[in-house]
From TrEMBL:
SUPFAM superfamilies per record: ClpP/crotonase (SSF52096)
Spans through the membrane: none
GO molecular function: 3-hydroxyisobutyryl-CoA hydrolase activity
UniProt keywords, alphabetically: Hydrolase
A Pfam family this chain is assigned to: ECH_2
Protein name, per record: 3-hydroxyisobutyryl-CoA hydrolase
UniProt catalytic activity: 3-hydroxy-2-methylpropanoyl-CoA + H2O = 3-hydroxy-2-methylpropanoate + CoA + H(+)
A Gene Ontology biological process term: L-valine catabolic process
InterPro entries according to UniProt: ClpP/crotonase-like_dom_sf, ECH_dom, HIBYL-CoA-H
Span of domain Enoyl-CoA hydratase/isomerase: 13-332
């Protein structure tokens, strides 16, 4: 067992604590495998009535997967990591016992995948949620294909294409979190559920209700623009509104500088995901990752963001208009060998 993740039984709760603090709880392959194994064990343990996931870090719940490790694997992508991670995401989605994530601080990428698919997501006051993968030439995976199009309105499409961040109020109001409260209540939540109190009643007793921080006109523009069927139509819709509304201006700036290929993939995946079940969405993502890790944009994005930190990626192609639609479609084609499969529940 690694020291990056701990498991304990507290009363009738299986308590999981992410404690790779110096790395902002970025998920390693060992962490993924250990979490999957423990969830399998607890599933058949009658003494465990609920599972709670939390973090030992005040700054981050989990900042995502170990992107640097993927970068270092250039030429030999670790597809076994994604095989195990995506199967873990599905195990959480189908978990037969209440699965509760207590989130305060940064939650991105892989950290979203081990939390949002559970039955309950509790947002603390310092939560900062994002799927920022388009900024490094990747795509919003770990089930983003499924949950993003099921958020309120078109906010999920907006997040997939821009990598924009949401704080507590918007996480609660727009469909990322099921509950929101002060992180000071997390220990009490754990203790009360561990003592056998009903999960829904406990969470409801601490829940705070929020309205979106986006005003009504911003949501209207978001829903109108990001309902368009193509990236260029979305951009044109935003440009039409940019002179009169700050949200349209902001969204255009958020799109600027991101990988054009990733933006196109992000839109294509949420359009497909809106009509697919969870397993179909994860299978699509496993196809995408096999293609995108053989392209240059991901390695260039990580270089510019994490390795050299110059903030100046040279995308290929560099313009949204230059992306070949056939190339985007090819990301979703069936794999000749090794399609993602799942164990029986």
């Amino acid at each position: 067992m690694s020291s990056d993740i701990s498991f304990e039984q507290r009363g009738c709760v299986g308590l999981i604590t992410l404690q790779r603090v110096k790395a902002l709880n970025a998920l390693s392959h060992d962490m993924v495998k250990e979490l999957a194994a423990k969830l399998g064990e607890w599933k058949g343990d009658d003494g465990i009535k609920a599972v709670i996931l939390t973090s030992a870090s005040e700054k981050a719940f989990s900042a995502g997967g170990d992107i640097r490790a993927l970068y270092d694997g250039k030429g030999n992508p670790p597809f076994d990591f994604f095989w195990n991670e995506y199967r873990l995401n599905r195990a959480i989605f189908r978990y037969p016992k209440p699965y509760i994530s207590l989130i305060n601080g940064i939650v991105m990428g892989g950290g979203v995948g081990i939390s949002v698919h559970g039955k309950y997501v509790v947002a603390g006051e310092n939560i900062m949620f994002a799927m920022p993968e388009v900024g490094i030439g990747f795509f919003p995976d770990v089930g983003g294909t499924y949950f993003l199009p099921r958020m309120k309105g078109k906010v999920g499409t907006y997040l997939a294409m821009t990598g924009a961040r949401l704080r507590q109020a918007d996480c609660a109001a727009l469909g990322f979190a099921t509950h929101a409260t002060s992180s000071e209540n997390f220990d009490a939540i754990i203790d009360r559920i561990a003592q056998g109190e009903q999960v829904e009643a406990v969470l409801s007793s601490y829940n705070q209700l929020f309205e979106p921080t986006f005003d009504a006109s911003a949501l209207d523009i978001m829903n109108e623009a990001f309902s368009k069927p193509t990236v260029l139509e979305i951009v044109n819709s935003l440009k039409e509104k940019a002179d009169g509304h700050s949200f349209a201006q902001k969204a255009l700036k958020q799109l600027d500088g991101k990988s054009p290929t990733s933006i196109h993939v992000g839109l294509a995946q949420v359009l497909r995901g809106a009509k697919a079940d969870f397993e179909e969405c994860m299978a699509l993502e496993y196809r995408i990752v096999h293609r995108i890790l053989h392209e240059e944009d991901f390695y260039e994005g990580v270089r510019a963001t994490i390795v050299d930190k110059d903030g100046a990626p040279e995308w290929n192609p560099a313009e949204l208009e230059s992306v070949d639609p056939a190339k985007i479609e090819a990301h979703f084609a069936p794999l000749e060998n090794g399609e993602l499969t799942f164990d029986e529940i």
